[in-house]
Design goal:
mainly alpha; single chain; 74% helix
């Protein structure tokens, strides 16, 4: 088994070396794709955009992103995946040969285990949800379509699925290029991300979940992950073994970021899910959810994107891990809460005031 894994990972390092040698000019594109595929952009861009246009799609995006990333964390703790940027220095695979030279970049030195790829899994889950949601919306509008509309549906499917697979290929290549993942890890990420998204396409209770259900779901997911960590630690398994490797082999210490650790990811996702529950059951949301004018929706989308962009510039201090994790949870919970309840309430109030002045 070790020989098979060494062969696969050796192939992965050779692939990274080939991409870095022959496509160095595309470095900027690959780095941008890795940045764009981060789930942070789902929470700060896709969610506010889609929630105000089609609330059910926005809600499903959050559930797919959060549950997908939680599963990714559990899989990583079970599978103990290496990362190319440290494996190439330690592997016995290169005992009798000179290992290929691998460049590192600011996004290379992630601190968690590598399998499956979180970026690939997140991008697959989010974009699969978007594609299937758009197709479902368009199909529902053309129930009694003619042959002409059927052809349009076919063209739309072809365009959207081509776009979907194009995005997945770019994300996978970018993660391999920057030496954050091996090819088999990004492929596993795409497959598992699509499975999670398809599971939520068949799930209806999330659209009517009570605040109690949001609370208990958040509590269960957090408790399970922490309990699993403590159990394995009691059995002598160090689940933070990758942090030491990252600090040892990353060429620049400042590239090792605390927000890429497993617990940072866990609390960020749990905060987002809990904040969504708070927002959906807020009296402010109840007061504004029936507003459906184009001006109201546009005002909510623009205000959300601007305000969340400014809010994202706040970075929790990293000198104390406990404080960092607490503030990460609070920051993540604030994003959906503000998007779902506070901004729509303010926009609705501003429009009502303007209408009264107009009269």
């Amino acid at each position: 088994m070790n020989a098979i894994m060494d062969a696969m990972q050796g192939f992965g390092v050779s692939t990274t070396h080939y991409l870095q040698t022959n496509y160095q000019d595309a470095q900027g594109l690959f780095l941008w794709v890795s940045w764009a595929a981060d789930l942070r952009n789902t929470f700060f861009i896709f969610f506010p955009l889609w929630f105000h246009l089609r609330a059910s799609v926005g809600i499903k995006l959050i559930w797919v992103a959060v549950i997908g990333d939680w599963l990714n964390l559990v899989f990583k703790w079970i599978l103990f995946g290496e990362r190319p940027y440290w494996w190439v220095h330690e592997a016995a695979h290169y005992a009798n040969t000179v290992p290929p030279h691998i460049e590192q970049y600011p996004m290379t030195c992630e601190t968690g285990p590598g399998s499956p790829s979180g970026h690939a899994m997140g991008a697959a889950g989010v974009y699969y949800t978007l594609v299937t949601s758009v197709l479902a919306i368009m199909t529902s509008k053309k129930k009694y379509g003619s042959k002409k509309s059927t052809n349009k549906n076919w063209y739309l499917k072809a365009v959207l699925w081509t776009l979907f697979w194009g995005v997945q290929v770019c994300v996978c290549l970018s993660r391999v290029f920057i030496a954050a993942h091996f090819p088999h890890q990004v492929i596993a990420g795409v497959i598992t991300g699509m499975i999670v998204a398809e599971a939520f396409n068949r799930t209806q209770w999330i659209y009517s979940a009570s605040m109690k259900k949001y609370f208990y779901t958040t509590l269960f997911l957090t408790s399970f992950a922490v309990g699993f960590y403590l159990l394995l630690k009691a059995l002598g398994v160090d689940l933070l073994w990758t942090l030491e490797k990252a600090q040892k082999w990353c060429v620049k210490p400042e590239w090792v970021h605390l927000d890429t650790t497993p617990f940072a990811s866990l609390l960020r996702n749990m905060g987002t899910l809990f904040g969504l529950g708070l927002g959906l059951h807020s009296p402010l949301y109840t007061e504004t959810k029936k507003s459906s004018s184009t001006l109201f929706k546009a005002g909510c989308v623009i205000s959300s994107l601007i305000l969340l962009h400014l809010f994202d510039s706040f970075k929790p201090p990293t000198h104390t891990a406990a404080l960092f994790y607490l503030l990460s949870f609070c920051k993540s919970a604030t994003v959906p809460l503000v998007t779902v309840s506070i901004i729509p309430y303010c926009v609705n109030g501003a429009l009502s005031l303007q209408n009264k002045k107009g009269v």
